[in-house]
Amino acid sequence: MKYKNEMIMTVKSLSENESFVRSSVAAFCLPLNPTIDEITEIKTAVSEAVTNCVVHAYPDKVGDIIIKVKLTESDVNITVTDRGVGIDNLEKAIEPFYTSKPEDDRSGMGFTVIESFMDSFKLERNKGAGVSVHMTKHIGGANVEMVGEENAWAR
Q1: Where does the pLDDT of residue 20 fall: very low under 50, low under 70, confident under 90, or very high at 90 and above?
Q2: What pTM does this model have?
Q3: Which candidate in 22, 38, 41, 52 is catalytic?
C-alpha cells in the first residue's frame, strides 16, 4: 500500500492533550476531502482511543501516547499506542459496557464507539507493555471534482 503522507506525534498522557490530538489528526486528513460526518467520526474515534490511554494505560503516572496517521488515496490509517499497564483480556475489553473502572462511572463504550465509526478496528497487545489501537476510515470524498457554475462539490 502506497502512502501519500504520514505523520507521527507523541504526547503525554494528560487529558488536555486529547483535544489537541483529535484536532491535529482531523486537520491532517483534510487533503482527502472528507465529509463533515467523516471528520466527526475520525475525531470521535481518536478521542476515545487517546482517552483510554489517559484513563487506563497510565493510572499512577504520566506516560507517552504515540499517534501515527497514514493517508492513502482514499483511506486514513490511524494507530494510537501506549506503553502503559496493558489490557489483561482484549476480548472482554471490546465488549459493550465493559469497564475496568466502574467506580469512576466509566461507560465502557469507548472501543464500541471506535468500532462503529471506523471501517476497521483492531486492538493489539504490544510486546513489552501497553496496547495499540489500529483504525482505518475510508474517505468517500477522496476523489472529488468541481462541477456547475456554483462550484458545488460533487463526488
Answers
A1: very high
A2: 0.79
A3: 52
Beta bridge partners of 2: none
Is 16 part of the annotated catalytic residue set? no
Domain that holds residue 102: 5-154
- pLDDT tens, residue by residue, 77-99: 999 999 987 666 656 555 554 55
Q: Which residue has the cell 475496568?
A: 100
CA–CA gap between residue 8 and residue 136 (Å, rounded): 16
Instruction: Output phi, psi for 68, to 5 deg.
Output: -120, 130
How many whole angstroms separate alpha carbon 32 and alpha carbon 4? 10
Number of folded domains that form the chain: 1
CA-to-CA distance for 22 and 99, rounded, in angstroms? 23
Task: Confirm whether 48 is a catalytic residue.
Answer: yes
Q: Give yes or no: 115 in active site.
A: no
CATH number of the domain where residue 110 is located: 3.30.565.10
More confident residue, 94 or 46: 46
